[in-house]
């Protein structure tokens, strides 16, 4: 894929390195001379420009990008980049970094955001996961807030131990997408058994999260 990243600070550069390892084509757009360091990531295309300016995005050829990542440290900039990417260049997928959790409500379809990534929220979620085994933890909001990526670790006393994936009677707006077990990533199949300690990742709407929690704890 061709991916444009607005913001070449520490976060933007880290994302670029990961994507280049995946053999994607990466463009870094940076307005600060201090952060404009093409020699640090020679495999990426670099552009010294303001990503909030329509002319800059036109010069960057944003219409040819499959994904745009707004990764600056300024939420206002990330929102403007997201909106321009979606409305002016019809970019299929727009991912935006949320720096201040108080601004998270703005990062929606109305501003062109498909996926909002809040570092503070994710860190808090990781803490909750580490401390509260068995509790459902929301990791990320997807698709303009219509669904969330949530995680729950099966506690030692889980009634699901030994049962099969097909035995999970999930609500219509929820799907089990992965099981993490002992360093392995398992794509769940109907006959796969469940074990205590499994980290289960679901995509679900907010209104069914309580139902998922009840199922995991055998309360249905």
From TrEMBL:
Source organism, top-level taxon: Bacteria
Transmembrane domains' residue ranges: none
Gene3D superfamilies: NAD(P)-binding Rossmann-like Domain, Regulator of K+ conductance, C-terminal domain
InterPro entries given in the database record: K_uptake_TrkA (IPR006036), NAD(P)-bd_dom_sf (IPR036291), RCK_C (IPR006037), RCK_C_sf (IPR036721), RCK_N (IPR003148), Trk_Ktr_HKT_K-transport (IPR050721)
Entry-linked Pfam families: TrkA_C (PF02080), TrkA_N (PF02254)
Domain spans labelled RCK N-terminal: 1-117
Domain RCK C-terminal stretches: 137-218
Keywords assigned by UniProt, alphabetized: Ion transport, NAD, Potassium, Potassium transport, Transport
SUPFAM superfamilies recorded: NAD(P)-binding Rossmann-fold domains (SSF51735), TrkA C-terminal domain-like (SSF116726)
Protein name per UniProt: Trk system potassium uptake protein TrkA
Biological source species: Saccharopolyspora halophila
Upper taxonomic lineage: Bacteria, Bacillati, Actinomycetota, Actinomycetes, Pseudonocardiales
């Amino acid at each position: 894929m061709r991916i444009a990243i607005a913001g070449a600070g520490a976060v933007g550069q880290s994302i670029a390195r990961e994507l280049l390892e995946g053999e994607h084509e990466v463009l870094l757009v940076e307005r600060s001379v201090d952060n404009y360091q093409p020699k640090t990531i020679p495999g990426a295309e670099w552009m010294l420009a303001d990503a909030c300016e329509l002319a800059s995005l036109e010069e960057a050829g944003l219409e040819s990008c499959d994904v745009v990542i707004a990764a600056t440290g300024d939420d206002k900039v990330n929102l403007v980049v997201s909106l321009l990417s979606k409305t002016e260049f019809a970019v299929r997928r727009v991912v935006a970094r949320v720096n201040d959790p108080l601004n998270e409500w703005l990062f929606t379809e109305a501003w062109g955001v498909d996926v909002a990534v809040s570092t503070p929220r994710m860190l808090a979620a990781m803490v909750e996961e580490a401390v509260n085994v068995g509790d459902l933890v929301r990791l990320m909001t997807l698709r303009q807030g219509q669904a969330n990526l949530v995680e729950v670790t099966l506690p030692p006393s889980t009634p699901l131990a030994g049962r099969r994936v097909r035995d999970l009677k999930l609500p219509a707006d929820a799907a089990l997408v992965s099981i993490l077990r002992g360093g392995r990533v398992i794509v769940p199949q109907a006959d796969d058994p469940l074990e205590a300690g499994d980290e289960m990742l679901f995509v679900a709407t907010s209104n069914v999260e309580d139902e998922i929690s009840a199922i995991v704890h055998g309360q249905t």
